[in-house]
Design a protein that fits this description.
Largest interface: A-B, 24 and 17 residues
Number of strands of chain A: 4
Shape of chain A: elongated
Oligomer: heterodimer
Strand order of the largest sheet of chain A: 1-2
Order of helices and strands of chain A: HHHHEEHEHHHHHHEHH
Largest sheet of chain A: 2 strands, antiparallel
Strand content of chain B: under 5%
Distance between the termini of chain B: 48 Å
Strand content of chain A: under 5%
Helix content of chain B: 40-55%
Largest sheet of chain B: none
Distance between the termini of chain A: 122 Å
Structural class of chain A: mainly alpha
Number of helices of chain A: 13
Structural class of chain B: mainly alpha
Chain lengths: 346, 51
């Protein structure tokens, strides 16, 4: 082993020399740069600042990582567009919703004060005509009842923290919100079914025509007293509501489908886009339905019977849907030649 | 009134039916979006709540 020992002996002095050289260089460095000697690098101060990083990222940029779990969306680490989305939900959406819903309540209240309840000008005749068959009313109430729960539980998401949480406390609000969320998720399916059936059974009566232009030109008989423009089964206002329900409902269903199954949009940006669509359409949809509920109940005398019992007074039908009454009479589905006789309105 | 009540009943049955169907054909997210190495015990309760 002599050669090994000699090698070892030879190595030791070399290592010592190397150490001495390193120390000398370090001393030189410290003398030359005294700040470095104090280890002035501060990771928290000099690392990339989050706000600077987010500001540096442009629209659509994001920082993604690599993941092994089967959830592709979890790989998004930083996405600046998410701040805009959060800001929209926290500040802009409540304003849009508040203006739309409270504004509609205000408009309806003003309209009721100015116009009053729309009465049957000739009074009730005492003779009725079938306006909606059982299946049509079933479809209407199926969709409507689901819509009401969906609307209230949806509004709870936007306004519950502000309006309900302070009233009932965190525990009650959390429990209520949990059940509201479950109801929202699962009642969405019968709502969508109702929309499809509604579209199929009423599309033929809701194609816009020339008679609708005349109806609109004359203000639908709502503004001037005693003048009722002729209308078929649905007047232009009702056709408007129909298409709001169908188009709005379709957008709500499509966007809601992506929220029910959030792995479908494939990325966070698309999911945020659909939540915005869902929320904005929902607010406008609710406002529109408030007008529909108003005119179908307190706004117009005799209107609720159409969806209540399915039978409406013949005078009411003649005043609001004269062309439809003529068609029904021609088919023998309605009494003809009845002389309207005035009856007490209530 | 009967039609209205029938619609409410149908909506409730359809909602419950869909919840049962979806819970049957879908895996919970704690299983579907994790690998066995990353799964947590008692999902839904161990990461939230007073625990």
């Amino acid at each position: 082993m002599p050669s090994s020992l000699s090698t070892l002996k030879a190595c030791v002095p070399r290592a010592s020399i190397a150490k001495a050289l390193c120390a000398a260089f370090a001393l030189l460095f410290v003398l030359a740069y005294p700040a470095a000697a104090q280890l002035s690098f501060k990771p928290t101060a000099e690392a990339v600042q989050e706000d600077k990083l987010l500001n540096a990222l442009k629209e659509g940029d994001k920082i993604s990582g690599r993941i092994t779990i089967p959830d592709a969306m979890a790989s998004s680490l930083i996405q600046p567009a998410g701040r805009d989305w959060r800001d929209f939900h926290r500040s802009k959406l409540p304003i849009i919703g508040g203006v739309a819903i409270i504004g509609m309540f205000a408009l309806l209240a003003i309209f009721l004060m100015l116009r009053g309840r729309i009465r049957v000008d000739h009074g009730f005749s005492g003779t009725t005509i079938l306006r909606f068959a059982s299946f049509e009313r079933f479809t209407h109430w199926l969709t409507a009842s689901c819509f009401i729960v969906l609307a209230l539980s949806g509004l709870n998401i936007s306004f519950g923290r502000i309006l309900i949480l302070p009233l009932f406390g965190a525990e009650a609000f959390a429990t209520m919100s949990t059940y509201a969320k479950l109801a929202h998720d699962y009642l969405a399916f019968p709502f969508m079914l109702g929309l499809v059936v509604m579209f199929l059974i009423w599309i033929k009566d809701n194609i816009p025509g020339k008679v609708d232009l005349q109806w609109l030109k004359q203000g639908g008989g709502i503004l001037p007293n005693g003048k009722h423009p002729p209308a078929k089964r649905f007047n232009a206002g009702q056709k408007g509501i129909f298409w709001i329900v169908i188009i709005g409902g379709a957008l709500m269903s499509l966007s809601g489908w992506f929220l029910l199954f959030p792995y479908l949009p494939a990325n966070v940006t698309a999911l945020q886009f659909w939540t915005v669509i869902h929320a904005v359409i929902a607010m406008l949809f609710i406002a529109a339905m408030l007008a529909h509920i108003y005119i179908g109940t307190i706004g117009m005398e005799g209107a609720f019977d159409a969806m209540g019992t399915g039978q409406v007074d013949l005078n009411w039908a003649k005043e609001h849907h004269a062309l439809w009454v003529e068609e029904e009479q021609a088919k023998g589905h309605a009494p003809s030649g009845t002389t309207p006789r005035a009856m007490p309105a209530e | 009134m009967k039609v209205f009540l029938a619609a409410l009943l149908f909506a409730a049955i359809a909602a419950v039916g869909m919840s049962i169907l979806l819970n049957t054909i879908q895996q919970p997210s704690s299983v579907a979006f994790t690998t066995s190495g990353a799964r947590v015990g008692d999902p839904g309760n161990n990461l939230v709540g007073p625990g």
